[in-house]
């Protein structure tokens, strides 16, 4: 039986997030606010970060997807850090396990989801001979949306980012909700951040719990959560695990 903490719907309000400085030796200022950790999640980890004038050298020990919320995030990767990714509001970056990189930024604020949440205590190492999959930079203006659930009224749409075609672990999607009332049950562990407008999620007994998310708010929905999506000009970024959940539900 799963720990109760792992099955709870969580709402992290942006105004309540507490940041701690990271890598002070890297110059400038970098900070992190931890949201989903092994204490409240069995699959996806999630955190907010800021990067301003720092140069943080790192290698990912997990699959990671990041969306930029403010400022400019710069990631240096590839041979001798020769590939420079400059990402601004709404851009999404996919960093597979084993990616060597440097984080830089100019007043950058980001949201990151990763798998596995317990990477720090896992013993398996990334093989040195492993070929790291491609780092992806998905620009906001290149995301293609398609309408979903037209029968739900209003307008809802999605732009698929990470699917089984380019990820083995995390799925990622942009959504919009405006005047819709979409009834759904999560078939995966999910973490969502609101990037515009107001997202409303109804869940609990008879949908009696109403969560209203504004810009920067993060909502965690565990596998099996029954809910309704509503919204007012809402735009969201969502990461899920597993990416291939459809294959498990269509059996």
How far is the N terminus from the C terminus?
Answer: 24 Å
Uncertain parts? 1-5
Order of helices and strands: EEEEEEEEEEEEEEEEEEH
Helix content: under 10%
Structural class: mainly beta
Range of strand content: over 45%
SS element count, helices = 1
Provide mean pLDDT, rounded: 93
Largest sheet: 9 strands, antiparallel
> Which shape, going by the Cα principal axes?
globular
Describe this structure in words.
This protein is mostly beta strands. The chain has one helix and 18 strands. Strands 1, 11, 12, 13, 14, 15, 16, 17 and 18 form a nine-stranded antiparallel sheet that branches.
At a glance:
This protein is an all-beta fold.
Keywords:
251 residues; mainly beta; 52% strand; 9-stranded antiparallel sheet; disordered N terminus
Describe the secondary structure blueprint for this structure.
Layout: E1 10-12, E2 20-21, E3 29-36, E4 45-52, E5 56-59, E6 63-77, E7 83-87, E8 92-95, E9 100-115, E10 136-138, E11 146-147, E12 155-162, E13 171-178, E14 182-185, E15 189-203, E16 209-213, E17 218-221, E18 226-241, H1 245-249
Antiparallel strand pairs: 1-17, 2-3, 3-4, 4-9, 5-9, 6-7, 6-8, 6-9, 8-10, 11-12, 12-13, 13-18, 14-18, 15-16, 15-17, 15-18
């Amino acid at each position: 039986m799963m720990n109760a903490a792992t099955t709870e719907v969580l709402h992290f309000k942006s105004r309540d997030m507490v940041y701690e400085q990271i890598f002070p030796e890297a110059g400038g200022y970098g900070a992190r606010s931890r949201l989903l950790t092994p204490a409240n999640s069995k699959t996806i980890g999630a955190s907010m970060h800021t990067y301003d004038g720092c140069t943080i050298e790192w290698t990912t020990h997990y699959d990671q997807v990041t969306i930029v919320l403010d400022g400019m995030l710069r990631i240096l990767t590839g041979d001798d850090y020769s590939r420079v990714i400059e990402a601004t509001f709404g851009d999404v970056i996919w960093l597979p396990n084993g990616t060597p990189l440097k984080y830089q930024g100019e007043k950058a604020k980001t949201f990151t989801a990763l798998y596995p949440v317990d990477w720090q205590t896992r013993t398996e190492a990334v093989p040195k001979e492993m070929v790291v999959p491609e780092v992806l930079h998905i620009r906001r203006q290149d995301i293609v949306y398609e309408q979903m659930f037209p029968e739900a009224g209003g307008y809802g749409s999605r732009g698929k980012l990470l699917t089984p075609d380019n990820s083995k672990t995390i799925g990622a999607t942009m959504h919009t909700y405006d005047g819709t009332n979409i009834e759904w049950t999560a078939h995966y562990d999910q973490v969502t951040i609101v990037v515009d407008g107001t997202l409303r999620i109804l869940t609990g007994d008879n949908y009696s719990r109403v969560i209203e998310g504004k810009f920067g708010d993060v909502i965690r929905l565990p596998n099996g959560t029954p809910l309704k999506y509503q919204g007012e000009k809402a735009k969201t970024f969502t990461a899920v695990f597993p990416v291939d959940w459809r294959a498990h539900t269509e059996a």
